């Protein structure tokens, strides 16, 4: 018997949460967590390196365990849940996607920067050929004006995506910004809309509720808040709030609480909280990879790294443009000097 | 020069936050935190035992340092901030309030259960006589229907309170419930309305924004989320979000981030997070003091303690009625048996 689900949750602790433990998941941990989530009737469980298939590298951090082993273990464990993988074209390859599908993955989220959906069509086409449910995952969604976001989401739909996600990668969107974006997508697309939050501004649960109120039907959560930066939307908390609101997720709240406390919490090296760095990233709306660069540039020019990050956020600088950080710092230092500060 | 403040913050880490470190604050810690908050231009800093003046006891936990020493140290440290104290009639006494005022406290929040404002008039009158700014602080505000809350708030106003707070002691209010309550108070009172949140459902920041949108002008925060249970509204996060919304707190965001990271975080025994117990309390909307009783009763009757807590929440059982927990557990066990579960 299928439970009624008003909202369909995807649990990302075994993917985005991988960042929180420096990609050190073991097969045993993934098996235990997947078993618990499956028993709690979570419909989708994502398993991949934090940066998606093929992310294990010097640049993104090496995984302790080959992600294919983790995917295979999770797929072999679950009885009702479907295993999802994340694929960022340019990091992961079509070969890796095929391999994940062979091992039992049933869904793939093809992730691109919010303005670069046009790198996704081949990967989406392959995913459909492989019989996978396919999601267009628009990262750093705050960096595009709403019209641009709609245009890019429609591209994802045109490539064959079954649903498209607004991804608040930097945890920077405010509730009214989520509302505007989801509403516009809901009016322009006929496929399901999803929302993926980060908790840098402590708004992940509230923003997820707002998204649901505006018609998002797919929501990501991470049990015990296990995710990059300040973590994602804490799944068991979201389930509790939605239950109070009369919105059915089909997920067993008590079981999720138990899995969070007994299986996931002991895996964490330290609890997820909103630290200074996490808050700065959410406030400025920039990539976490900018943080160390900005701190180095700040030391060089004798200014505050936060001013650099806020300026980078305003300029909507994207990943790969790290060399601009020194220019921005130099410019800021000059302005401050001129202003006599 | 007075900064423009659209919203007036009261920092409660040195009072509500005292719970998070089992009331072990030292004079040196309080002095350092108060100095940092004062330099960040926080207008009010509350210092007391977690359960208010006179809270140091076998029942509520003994303080490491006499709270009067902590109040005196904080008052001697601040240059612009005003020191606040919490007074729960029945726990704290008028004598203690006089003593706190002599030591430099400039504000008192007279706290009662949401339906028991009528125990406050003498304490409010004394506070006014002492020249203190005086706040009516309606705890467990979710337990009264909105009309009752308005009635009780009007009592606080009639006793002479300068402002009245909706206090979400169990961290259980949902955004639409905050909206309804603050709106009703705004329409019925002429004094300032305040809001004090807890983060059990990860909604403290969002609920505080909702309260401000509905006209609340006074908001409580706890730096680094330091507070009872899942903590309160993380002050530096709230300041960042309000800044993004163009709402002036007059508080220096960068300085608050630094104080959180460098002074407050090292004091914590472990970071604040939303654990199973914290979530259960917020979901059920009950006193934290019920938790151990419910767990004991659950073991006795072989049922889940969460079912007991949810039932107690529905029945709106209040502190002092702990003896009802066994009755509720027995009743639940009987029902489950009858239902063949």
UniProtKB/TrEMBL annotation, chains A, B:
It is an enzyme of class 4 (lyase). One of its GO terms (molecular function) is 4-hydroxy-2-oxovalerate aldolase activity. Substrate binds at residues 15-16, 169, 196, 287. Residues 7-257 form the Pyruvate carboxyltransferase domain. The keyword Ribosomal protein does not apply. The keyword Phosphoprotein does not apply. Keywords: Aromatic hydrocarbons catabolism, Lyase, Manganese, Metal-binding. Pfam families: DmpG_comm, HMGL-like. InterPro entries: 2-IPM_HCS-like, 4OH_2_O-val_aldolase, Aldolase_TIM, DmpG_comm, DRE_TIM_HOA, PYR_CT. Mn(2+) binds at residues 16, 196, 198. Belongs to the 4-hydroxy-2-oxovalerate aldolase family. PANTHER family: 2-ISOPROPYLMALATE SYNTHASE 1, CHLOROPLASTIC-RELATED, HOMOCITRATE SYNTHASE-RELATED. NCBIfam families: 4OH_2_O_val_ald, PRK08195.1. This is 4-hydroxy-2-oxovalerate aldolase. The lineage of its organism: Bacteria, Bacillati, Bacillota, Bacilli, Bacillales. The gene is dmpG.
